[in-house]
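Quick illustration, no need to memorize.
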Amino acid sequence: MVTRDFSGYEVAKALVNKGNFQWVRTPGDHAVLKWEHPDGPEVKKRSVTIPLHDRVRVGTLRGIAEDAGAKDFEKFCEWIPESVTAASERIANGDDRHTSSDNSLGSLSQNSLT
């Protein structure tokens, strides 16, 4: 079984670093992230609010996955640690650029995102 025990910061980090979401603001202890379709916001856009708590409850995590466009909650939970690890390795190697070819959420979309 895949872990569902993530901090809000881990979830936000995965969506920003690998899912092409932008961290827009932080009202209180929540992060507000936005995503726009590469062809423009008139095609599709998403907004996700993530509590920056030490642990995000499963129901909240499921809602975040749905708001982010995930169709398969289990695959979304598998994707988070992979994305956080890949982003951390990239930064440790001195490469903090975001590239479109480095979009795991995009490749996940074939199976589980709308």
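The domain at 8-88 is CATH 3.30.920.30 (Metal Transport, Frataxin; Chain A).
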